[in-house]
Here is the input.
Amino acid sequence: MPQYNPPLRDMQFVLHELLHAVDELKLLPAHAEVDEDTINAVLEEGGKFAAEVLAPINLSGDLEGCTLDKTTHEVKAPKGFKEAYAQYVEGGWPALSCDPEYGGQGLPVLVNQFMYEMMNSANQAWTMYPGLSHGAYEALHAHGTPEQKATYLPKLTSGEWTGTMCLTEPHCGTDLGLLRSKAEPQGDGTYKITGQKIFISAGEHDLAENIVHLVLARLPDAPAGSKGISLFIVPKFNVNADGSLGERNPVYCGGLEHKMGIHGNATAQIVLDGAVGTLVGQPNKGLQAMFVMMNAARLGVGNQSLGLTEVAYQNAVAYAKDRIQMRALSGPKAPDKPADPIIVHPDVRKMLLTARAYAEGGRALSAYVALQLDKALASDDADEAKACEDEVALLTPIIKAFISDNAWIATSHCMQVFGGHGYIHEWGMEQFVRDSRINMTYEGTNTVQSLDLLGRKILGNNGATLKKFGKKIAEFVEEEGTSEAMQEFINPLADIGDKVTKLTTEIGMKAFQNPDEVGAAAVDYLRVVGHLCFAYMWARMAKLALEKKDSGDPFYTAKLATARFYFAKLLPETASLIRTARAGLSPLMEMDEALF
Here is the structure.
């Protein structure tokens, strides 16, 4: 069975040395009392929960999966999931970063980010249950009425109730403008919702006493397309005026998807048969409200991918150090054994270091974005809050798509380290690969994220937000440009920064002539910008490691070696990506459809 050890040392490095997070957070009124010791203690306890409670039921949960009683429409999660959730609630973990007004602990998003990384490493399928709930909490916190907040937020904060996001339908996929679910006003402020939703993660289960579904549907007079979508709260059990649970609402699970991965999470087909709901926000403005949850989910998917990359790396390293096979080409490295451990072989090291570099780079970038989100939410300086909000919007598709692409690469590499044993369930590696694959697909496929980044977030404002982010990188390059020791990191960082500027301008000019050029270049483009972000993070981490390389702490020695690997072996991928992005639309569209 795979093992998991929370990477607390690296988390503390990112928090306290790279980001100086406490100093930044103390400037925000909501977090003026935060301190390093509290954050470290919370993460240490959270790590114990992840490693000791969640990890042991990951493999068994994958094997067992969820079961649906087709008569009652009730779903049971795998053995141990309900008990683990009860411990999670008892420990107060759902409330970590929630508003104290509703029973939350009010800790920074950044702390919650690290907690979720550890839980995702330990058991992604289980973690999706509270993860969806937290997204529902955020959407209602931003757009709910005072009455809705009073009714639902305390229960979501405590974890007594869970939440979902019910978006897509069998015929529409990502194009929510095509959805058909209907909401009929009842004259008493409620609506009857009718329709069918699919791919609803955590859509039905036995972990909590009530499930709060956030459902997109159309009012009778709604305009066509995405401008005619409204958002509704549809609880599994209706809620009485005193907050107690009332009668069962006709919203139920019509089937469970039999999936490639995340078997322990109930991916439900949800049927709404005149279910009672209440409107969230303004009529026909549902997507604006739901985007709060969708953006949170996209950051969450990046976090899922980061967690899988880390746990796959840990287990692959342990195996590579123990497994003996063949001799090193340069001669025996373990002469007392019949063969050398496979970690001596260069390509095994390449696979391990790829996973490590993507895990540590992803952790740094995700934490950076979480800190900007804390500032966007809590700064009393409107200009700072807006600038941070814009930067989070810019980097969200990169967090989702680049980190999930990297997780697919990394988990595949780590499975390969195991050789034939990597395909055997009991080792856990093939589960990490299967679980990671969905992260590239749901919450908007990575192609959709790429179109969002290039078309909306960059070309949509003539690159203004990208230029501001690029200015931070340029300032760092200028500060370190005279350091001889930093040249191996600064020169390639400056180079990729210049190339992104030129590539963006070139694609923008092509897109002005033909918008389809955005679609042709977007996926390659996002990966190039993702590497720009990682190169920035790795150069900053390399600077810190260089400053402390003589401290005697092997942590900094390893950090510096990983930085060098990233710049030498992974960043050069951008050369081919830039070339294929520049190849443009013609090679994709010149073939007649009939010839496919």
Summary: The chain has a mean pLDDT of 96.
